[in-house]
């Protein structure tokens, strides 16, 4: 049955989170970018667990995010007492020119970092804030998706949220959000690749168009 | 708010309507009796300013809630960049059926409109205009004509839109021989209101409607129907003589004062005609019984200089004849008491206002201040792209610009002190309470130096330095 109300959707998300925590107890983390979707996911988990976040929170630092995102990340991490793990690819930052080759840049600074973190910490599952309506490539995704490199499950508890649900949730629970949204931004990416575009594309298209075209390939590599 | 409780939102932009030429704002000739009637049941905002001097940046501000420089606009950008939310997409998320109707070729589809009518068309069906939009991007898909034809045919067959190609050919012929939105504005205006009425009837009780309308009657070339002649009565031949001129000619050709005064009166006649049609539309809303559940906004994207400061048009400067715009808002019943407001308001404040009325959970930019919330401290406007000078230089390539032709920007504070900054570093300060016509530059008055500094600081804090923007 289709989920109609926000509360139904919240319950469904928390059921998915609950199942994930049980299945992968002690071997699961949550990937948090500081954007509205992953912050909503983080808050859903916090709410489910009585105000605590009982698992590590992974933040991928490409080094070129907007300063407002870093400020938001650090503030929320402190206020919510997160076990925040910040990972970045120092080697790649020395080797590549940021955004020169978009695919390589995303792969080295994001996908590779996620894969390394999963292996390093022995996680069997990673929770993300992906949504079905965000991009056509994501429309067929499932709540639990097995991935191979490295072997782990991707857990996607807010797939059924749409953009309005996200903001309704944020408003109804007073969830903090990055100040860039109060400057009109609808989707937050890395600063060098966040540029103006043309109409008629999906929400994520505010980020770099070239990158979107290779989205599929990057997702296969572990990027979300 | 559930969709069945949402009010209709009708946003009417009277393109290039200057507040100071409206009788409701004190103009000596009666040009806007209709607007005055609408304002009796709504709120008249006395101090509303555009964010720019011309169509594209102003409309993009309206649709995004941001100042032009915050949008990072480059030449030829006519859409709100993907990076930012648009008003129609937010309203669509809430359950609105979002429709745009534009008589201005520079105001086209924005992200979030389910259907957008460009009024150089003989067709009113939503399906036809959706087809037009859906096939618009085919030309970007491939450089090869055969490839484009293949995509086009594929669309026709897949979507079963077999009538579309025939309609498209008819529309092309109509555009070529039957319509010119700049010279035959009154026909487009009539068709726009007819279509608006049709849409309101169609969606009444079905779905909340967000209807954006742009009307070009007060944009050059001013061309009201000949039987509207209470302000100026000109024969067709006399009008044709006036139409040989364009804004840039005013600065490089000898046009007699008599000719210019006829042009100025023709502007007012156009405004009167438009006002008349607007009132008729308002009466229609009344007759349909939808006014109490409708948020109706009447405003403009910028004004028009008609001789003030030695200017004609809206291609140079940010003086008040260009910057001050009419704003009348008829709120849904129970939202705000009718009356006059002297608060400092801007065109893009409508972004936040409309979202607040619709109880949207989305965040809106701090640059847009809901008219139902606390007053803004400052209003800003920007005019960096030198469209006027470029037009002149098409005729005289080595034309040396006059000081008022330079890019500029301005800030106005709550006490209505206005500071204009020009590209060459000049500053002008005006006390709009005492001198709304901006005849007395106070920037050199020693006692006002702190005011100049404070205004300039506020402008740099908000918009960055001038150099960063040009």
UniProtKB/TrEMBL annotation, chain A:
Domain Phosphoadenosine phosphosulphate reductase: 28-195
PANTHER family: SULFATE ADENYLYLTRANSFERASE SUBUNIT 2 (PTHR43196:SF1)
Pfam families per the UniProt record, alphabetical: PAPS_reduct
Organism: Desulfobacca acetoxidans
Protein name: Phosphoadenosine phosphosulfate reductase family protein
GO molecular function: catalytic activity
